[in-house]
Specification:
Length: about 180
Amino acid sequence: MAKVQDVARYILEKRSDQGHATTTFALQKFLYYSQAWMLVSRSIPLFNDEISAWEHGPVVRSIWNYCRNRRYISPRDIPDGDTDALLPNEEILITRILNLYADIPDACLGDELEKASHLDKPWQDAYCNNNKVITQNVIHDYYASLQADPSIAHGARIPMLADISNVTYISDEDSAFLDNLLAR
């Protein structure tokens, strides 16, 4: 399993390679969404570090130490990150998440990701109930429900997971349809 520093450096390198600068806010939210969609697609965490619900959205505390007192962060700011530690399916997933947000200007991206995370139930529940840790189970359950039924109110953009996922999610409505079909 990759360390969160490996994932952070990968995110920063990919964005830099695409000509994007990355704010510390954006990095934190990309880590959160990468963890969320890995939990949904593979039922395993991308990294083991806890994610906390801070005022401005989800934060991985161990990466915050690299971000402190910076607006922008670059790959060289995380020298102990090793992008070779990521598996190919992890790289594909992270790249898809980054591409979902490529249309947002760099200077606005962190704020847009903050707004999106604030619309999502895991951050809302943890922050508003003073339970500052957003657990992997809560993250998984919420984003899996979005994968099954994207009509649920949410802020996150939903990546295509079918070719890298080892899990399939369906809505309650689709489940009932299949039950009826199989009962014939």
